[in-house]
Write a structure and sequence with these properties.
The protein is mainly beta and about 60 residues long. The chain is built from no helices and 5 strands. The chain has one domain.
């Protein structure tokens, strides 16, 4: 009998003081409609609301 291997996502989320969320590891990022998938190794997500590349951080928080 063949044993099925299950791939589990493992991500680490770091809250950067006065900055974005840093997410690293093995994970899948999907939009609300779930029709875009990405498997990056590292992303920075905006927390300030000023980014022009939402949901990703573009460094706009530095100008606040």
């Amino acid at each position: 009998m063949e044993e099925e291997k299950e791939t589990k996502s493992q991500a680490e989320v770091e809250i950067i003081d006065f900055g974005p969320l840093r997410i690293t590891g093995n994970f899948i990022l999907k939009d609300l409609q779930r029709d875009k998938e990405s498997v990056p190794g590292e992303v920075y997500l905006c927390r300030c609301g000023k980014s022009s590349t939402k949901p990703f951080c573009d460094g706009s928080h530095k100008n606040m």
